[in-house]
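Support reply, case 0932

Customer input (verbatim):
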Amino acid sequence: MTDLTSQNSEDRRKGETVRSGTAAASIGVGATVLVIGAALLQAAGTNPVVGAALNLAVPAEYRSLIERAGKTCPEVTPDILAALLQQESGFKTDRTSPVGAEGIAQFMPSTWESQGVDGNGDGKRDVTDPEDAIPASAKYLCSVAKEVKDVPGNKTDNMLAAYNAGPQAVINAGGVPNYPETQNYVRSINAIAAKGGKGGKAGTTVTARQGIAAVEAAQEMLGKPYSWGGGNQSGPGTGICCSPNGSSGASIIGFDCSGLVLYAYAKVGITLPRTAAAQYAASKPIDPKKIQIGDLIFYGPSASGIHHVGIYVGGGYMINAARPGTKIRFDPLSSMSDMFGVARPIHGSTEEI
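Our regenerated output:
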């Protein structure tokens, strides 16, 4: 099933936002394009590209929204905003995480209360409406960027970490907090955004040896339970045992499909995004005739609609966390009818945090 940003990160986002007293501030550049001198940018300790174009591939219906919202303030670019939305929800508008984060930008209710906007002027602030949520996401990025502007380190990294874990966590840590989920979040968004800036997918694909090692790591988890939202770079994580809409089900320690992929490749030193759709975006499409062990098998109607991922083990089989009520197991690639494609993870596109 399609997975969302980890439960621990969402808990922190909710808590840190409340504690920091984030104001509903908006930093707008208005209709006029601001031309900022390079010396001023250097003095500010950041390197934004004001008025930058959107280079990443995004669903057509969201392109103009992201291009406009990505110019809300100098710290935010359209590619950074698009990468964030892809990481948060895979551009799905109807997602609710296990802890209650909603919509394409995965806002917690308390954060939406202070940061939500009526972007389309229909008199409502609807977290599930991209015309409201996308500009609200950019507004919130600008707000947290302002709150952490004096924190040492990379300004974009600190802004993204503040969006994920809360500004106060970044201030307290003096930079990106030492939370595995937040560090992966920052690294993944930078990796996705970098593809746009370089006109393609940066980095190199994993080797056959790395793919085999990732499969070996995944096989060590055979028999662990499916847990929607569970799994991280360190191993099994807390998720829910039942439906992916977060409706019911006790907490359980295990993996969901993309959580298993995240863990398996982390064991060989390769960091991937958290969701299945984002993992596809961080991989190179492969001709199925050239598939090799360790390649990822994606299922769904489109790139933004990918809902499942497995790891190819050879012989027409994959290892995967299939669905609620199952355990990690081997399944034939034909066990699901909507295979979207095969892709090989890319690494080396960003510096390590």
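We compared this against your earlier run and they match. Two observations from our side: The mean pLDDT is 80. Residues 9 and 181 are 6 Å apart (CA to CA). Please reopen the case if you see a mismatch on your end.
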